[in-house]
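Progress report, Aim 2. The chain analyzed during this reporting quarter is listed below.
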Amino acid sequence: MKNIFSILLATSGLLLWSCGGKSVGGSQATATEWDSSSEELVVRTESGQIAGYRDGSTYIYKGVPYAQAERFMAPRPVEAWEGVRSCRAYGPTAPQAVRTGWQSDEAAFAFNWNDGFPGENCQRLNIWTTALGDSHKRPVMVWLHGGGYSAGSGQELPSYDGRHLAAKDVVVVSLNHRLNVLGFLDLSAFGEKYAQSGNVGMLDIVAALRWVKNNIANFGGDPDNVTIFGQSGGGGKVSTLMSMPEAKGLFHKAIVQSGSTLTTMTSEWSRRIGVAILDELSLNASQIDSLANVPYERLLAAGNAAVAKVKAESAATGAASGLLFGWSPTVDGVVLPRHPFSPDAPEQSREIPMMVGTTFTEFAASAYVPQMRNLPEDKVMEMVRQTYGDSTDQFVEAYKKAYPNYKPADLIDTDFMFRSQAITQARLKAQQGGAPVWMYLFGWQSPVLGGALRSTHCMEIPFVFNNADLHASMTGGGADALLLADRMSDAWVNFARCGNPNGEGGIKGVPAWEPFDAQDGNTMWWDNECKILQNHDREVIEIAVGKLKTKI
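Predicted structure tokens for the chain:
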């Protein structure tokens, strides 16, 4: 039987391409009145007027252009237009490879992706709000989608719809930005013209945040109270923005969901990829400008081949071990002066409160490999021994201490890598002594597909957005899911409002949530019964991560 680590790598590769008035059950669908014609729907932005639509009490604007750019160049402001621009449908998504998740019928059913239509002018954002231009300043929550830095969009999952979160008196924004070879190809070795090319995908996000600062008041939002939140690759983007000088002052709170990023590419390796792509395309340095005209599919194929080649070179030397490699932000000394959270938390974000967390089973092999489901205990233990060898007994005993009511399958499904990264990031933030950081662990188990999904990667998103019913193919849409979604979305909104997920009076059914520190390790366990855990899994994580790292 395959080694558990190999299976986890295979299944995580599949999903990384997926992935993007309060009352209990407040997200439940009801009949609403639509309006797409009234003059009140027209809002002025710095580039011109736009028209959206109203769904019940929610005003919605989609596909709003926030920037424009030429290939490999930094974004610039959108050119002004005359008249009223219709912004009622999602705009183009960043060009990307075909989603491999479609190869699994179960994954396609559960995630229910909307891949939209691709276009290189993908700098668009979407807004959900319950008021336009009034005097009430609502917190603004800007969502950054997952999919690493290669895939995804601000519309890819039903979970991302912002209407039910906006109903809790916040303004929700999602966005698209350049990805993969268009967003993160470092051509700086070829002159000053391309100095920022390795980070233009991140600069798109900065441009979106700048647009929010300059325009969101007209949509009922407070430009001085902006929270950035993202999952998986989106969490990596949040981590990175905290170290980008150009992003300073554009957001005031940060939430990292299953995407804690400590280190990223360095220019030593990203420049080699830029040079290698020319070799793949049989071009020389004097022809560098011709990359602007290479068809996207050919450019992406050459870029992926260049990444594979340079990654193999780095692996042979071990020099880039531990870095986020390939299509990702580059530490270039200017746009990104340092690693996001290494060797410490970034000083520029000292006063930014953070929330950091993961799901219990993230990339559980059994969620995506049917043969792994319902394994008898002896087969589970066989796999555990293949992974942990002489440390098996020690691992099992430590696991029992962490999770006394565990099932045998938990031994192979529980995530340790994402969680250990999140703990490290939270510890660095807490050690800084600035604004506090809150830690969570999402343990709720989905009943969908007979429970196969467990608390997989992305599972917390419908709850954060209060969309447990809107994304019932993932949550099941039952009463327990609706109640937990109401509670979790309350915590996220409280955090956006005042920097504390408890809010002023706490959340009914949820214990008081204290900030994280290394000594106590306070962690909110999100489930049908919410509780506070304190360093409960420290020992088992040390064993598991130590073993798994030796297999990378």
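Confidence is low (pLDDT under 50) at residues 1-29. The first strand starts at residue 34 and ends at 35. These observations will guide the mutagenesis work planned for the next reporting period.
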